[in-house]
Amino acid sequence: MSGQAIALKVIASVPVDCRFWMEDDGWNGQCERFSIYVRATQFEEIKRKMESALEAHICSLLDRDQRAVTPTQEAVGSKGKVA
Q1: For residues 30 and 37, is the Cβ–Cβ distance under 8 A?
Q2: How far apart are CA 83 and CA 71, in angstroms?
Q3: What is the mean pLDDT of residues 3-25?
Q4: What is the rounded distance in angstroms from the CA atom of residue 52 to the CA atom of residue 18?
Q5: How many Cα neighbours within 13 Å face the side chain of 29?
Q6: Which of 42, 68, 52, 41 is nearest to 18 (CA)?
Q7: Is 36 a member of any domain?
Q8: Cβ-based neighbours of 18, under 8 Å, separated by 6 or more
Q9: Cβ atoms 17, 33 nearer than 8 A
């Protein structure tokens, strides 16, 4: 069998605790873990906004970590074992 690798983007669903509450002028949403706050007029809208905000925040953290990897670390990582 050949040892060919395939690069494939995988989307992982990660549950994150958030709080939502209604006020006179609409819905508020908060994720304390990542200091994210969103507002909307409808509940479904606030849920979508929170999901988008969480995705953007987590992607920015992953991008920042990827930029922090030095070329030496990349070379060592490519030779390392896969767990």
Answers
A1: yes
A2: 22
A3: 92
A4: 13
A5: 22
A6: 52
A7: yes
A8: 29, 30, 31, 50, 54
A9: yes
Is 7 a member of any domain?
A: no
Q: Is residue 6 part of a domain?
A: no
Question: What pLDDT sits at residue 65?
Answer: 75
User: Which DSSP string do the residues of 7-57 spell out, in sequence order?
Assistant: ------------EEEEETTEEEEEEGGGTEEEEESSHHHHHHHHHHHHHHH
Which residues span the domain enclosing 28? 19-68
With beta carbons less than 8 A apart as the criterion, state whether 29 and 18 touch: yes
- Convert the pLDDT of each residue in 17-71 to its tens digit: 999 999 999 999 999 999 999 999 999 999 999 999 999 999 999 888 777 775 5
- Using alpha carbons, select from 55, 49, 67 the residue that is nearest to residue 13: 55
Residue 83 has pLDDT above 50, yes or no: no
Top pLDDT among 22 and 14 is at: 22
